Amino acid sequence: MTTTWRMRFELSDSPGALARVTIRLAAADCNVLALHVIPVPGGVLDEIVVRAGEGVLPADLVEAVRSEGGKCVGITGANLRDLVDEPTAVLRAARMALAEPDKTAEALRQVLGADSVTHGEASDGQVQLGDLVVRRGWSRLTQVEIARAQALLDLVDTPAPAMRGMLSDDGVALVLRPGTAADEDAVAELHTRCSMKTLFNRYHSGMRTVPRRWLHRLLSPPRGTTIVAQCADQVVALGQLIHTGTPACAEVSLLVEDAWQQRGVGAAMLGALASDARAAGHAELVAWCLPSESALVRTAARAGLPATTRREDGLLRVSIAPRGRAVMPPIGTAMAEKTR
Known about the structure:
- It is built from eleven helices and 15 strands.
- The protein has helices at 17-27, 58-67, 86-99, 104-112, 143-156, 184-193, 196-203, 212-219, 265-279, 295-302, 333-338, and strands spanning 4-10, 31-40, 43-51, 71-77, 116-119, 127-129, 132-135, 164-167, 173-178, 224-231, 234-243, 249-256, 284-289, 307-312, 315-320.
- The strands form three sheets. It has an eight-stranded mixed β-sheet with strand order 8-9-10-11-12-13-15-14, sandwiched between helices.
- It is elongated and about 75 Å long.
C-alpha cells in the first residue's frame, strides 16, 4: 500500500501558511521528505513529498491543506525519484536519452511525473511537445515544466523513435526502425515470402497475400505504432504496438519472415516494442495466439520479458510484462561473442 505521496497545492500569500500546513502534517505523524516551489502565473505552487503516518489517507493530507485555506491541485503516489531535486532529475533523464535515444519518451515521462508520453496528436487535457503527447491526470503541467521538457527535447533532438541496430544469431546486421507509408511495397513483398502457416499464425485466417488496403493500417495504425526489421533493401519482419481501451495495457503482434525465424529477430523486435510500451506507461502487453502456438512465449523468454498464458475465447492470451529485463542485442555484441 502506498504510504508516500506527492502533493501540489496553492496557499494564500500570508506569512507562515506553509509552516502551518507542515505542523498539521507533523501532528498526524507525517514526515515531509522534500519541498519544491514552482512558479506559476500570479504566484507559486508548493509541492511536497510526504510519508504518511499510520492510518493517514490521501484525503487526510488534502484536508490538512484545506484547513489552512489552501487548495489541493493534485496528489499522486510518490517514489524515490521524487526525492531528487529537479535539476538532478533532468540531468539524469538527459543522460538516459542521449545514451539510448529510443528512451527519450521514457526519460520525459520520468521528469514530468506523467502518466504516459507517446507519439501522436494531443487531445483535451494533454500537452503536445513536438510529435510527443504528454498525459498527466493528477496535476496539470505548469509552464515551467513544459519549458523544461522542451529544453530536454531540444538537447536530445530525437523527437521520433530512433533506429536500433542488431545482429542476428548468425551475425547478420539488421536495423529496427519505425515503419512508414514508403514501406508499403516492401511489407507487401514480406507477406509474399511468408508461408501460409506463418500468415495464419499472425492473422488467424487463411491468406496468401495481404490485401493492399491493409498496408496503410499496418504501417500507420490509428491507435499505435509499427516497427520494421530491415536487412539490406528488404523488410524481413514487422511488429505492432496497439493501444487498447485500458490505459495500462497494449496489444502486441509480430510477423517474422520464415527464413528469419529462430535467429533472434523476433526477440529483438519484442524487446524494442517493450521499451516503447514502458515509455507509453503500459504495464502489460497482450498478444493473441492459436492454442497450439507457443513461439511468442519462447520469444518473450528469450527477450527477458516475463510472460503468462491462459485460454480465452478459443485463443491463447499471452500476457507480457514490459518492465522485465528486455534484451535487444546491439550491433557488435553477437559478433564480439563469435570472435572470442
